[in-house]
Amino acid sequence: MSLPVPTTPANFLALPPEQSALGTAGAVVIPAPIDSTTSFRSGARYGPSAIITASAALEDYDLELDVDVAELGIYTAPALEPDVGSPRRMAERVRAAVAYYAAMGKITGVIGGDHSAAIGSAEAHRERHPELSVLYVDAHADLRDAYQGTGWGHGSGARRISERCPVTLVGVRTLAMEERDYIRQAGIPAFYWPPDGDDYAGAVVDGLNADVYVSVDLDALDPSEMASVGTPEPGGMRWLELLALLRRVAERRRIVGFDVCELAPEEGPPAHSYTAAKLVYKLIAYSLALGGHNVGFGGGF
Hints:
The chain has nine helices and ten strands. By secondary structure, it is an alpha/beta fold. It has one domain: Arginase, Chain A (3-Layer(aba) Sandwich). The strands form two sheets. Strands 4-1-5-10-9-6-7-8 form an eight-stranded parallel sheet, with helices on both faces. It has a two-stranded antiparallel sheet with strand order 2-3. Helix 2 crosses helix 9, helix 3 packs parallel to helix 4 (117-128) and helix 8 packs parallel to helix 9. The radius of gyration is 18 Å and the shape is globular.
């Protein structure tokens, strides 16, 4: 029996049952409230709940694409229980959860949590798409073989993924010498920031395979637009620059899954939780309304 008064659903975009049911959803978001491997400012464990709360204020209609994002259907999965005793076991937990929903043909996105969540999520998508390439958007290279005692933390995400499928780094503006050497040795495509060339997005997309997994650490954005992260780095991408890149990827390739990580909501203003929620919303819209997943909504693109 339902309450005789209006209520606000506690899911992404605050959707009613007919737009948030698993069976009809085009996308699934999985909260991964983990930050046991953070190294500077903790608090990313609170990111998923802050993103979901802020998403209730988003308009369902996306002006850029002329799409009602709610009509795409978004199921919010139960939050994963952290395994703070083993980052490697946590990566496997994320992999298993993502694989479960991806097997249903859903666009599956993880909302973190620290960026170690990308390891398991990318692996689950690689299992479904053997020719997968990963677009890794981050201020940092995350290519350390191990950092602070583990090879499965936020400083090693791109390294572990690169051992399984091609990785393209975007937005990098700081890295360790060990990471510089690995980029050269392994031939990792790295697009540093600020851009060096006229068509940054085009050069990035040209190196990606047909199926793409998008992994975004919010510290890729400039701290003026996203200070609520564990390791802010000056001189980053602006919001419209990031969206232009992601849209180009969706138009010319097929985004099969994604993660948005590293929101530490208590380290910045509430507006940054809203920005993070908007990025999840845009990735869902780009994935389902552009490129290979076009489901026929809207007409503005």
